[in-house]
Amino acid sequence: MRTKPLIDYFENLLPLNEEEKSIVEEAFKERSVKRRHFILQKGDICKHHTFVVEGCFRMYMVDEKGKEYNLQFAIENWWITDIGSFYSEEPSKLYIEALENSTVLQLGKEDQIKLFDDNIKFNRIFRVLTENALISAHRRILQNISSTAEERYLDFLKMSPHFFNRISNVQIASYLGVTPEFLSTIRNKIVKS
């Protein structure tokens, strides 16, 4: 059953009984996404919380000159959602693209509301998810304004070593806010020291 990774994820936060596991199986819809296909594009309203069962995604924006800025990556057992668009129901300024052939479980807004109304435990679980996303965003903002590019790269290596065989150096450079050439310089400097 494809919901097992999600149920395991939830149970790491709060144990679920059999009825609650059935609720998860009903509420979340499985979707296959081919590499280079989108689950969200600029101008669309984000209609789902997305849990990655298998694969890799990136969330990014494109400025008026066509330059891409990676904001988030997600692999197995991670969530990826434009939370602002999801809750405000306003058009997104972001894209969410599959970097690999992927399988996800998605929860629509109506199903989320029903989940919250039917069982307070899911309200608590999603509150923790939202709090964790906010902590991560604050950490990234602080890092971007107070760390050098080399420090950001070393932190990315430490916190996310599982991305390095799955994401190109161009994508990593965009995430860190540097050019691919500058990232190469940083990597060479680290190797020599």
Automatic annotation (TrEMBL):
Domain Cyclic nucleotide-binding: 31-118
InterPro entries cross-referenced by the UniProt entry: cNMP-bd_dom, cNMP-bd_dom_sf, RmlC-like_jellyroll
Name of the molecule in the record: Crp/Fnr family transcriptional regulator
Natural source organism: Olivibacter oleidegradans
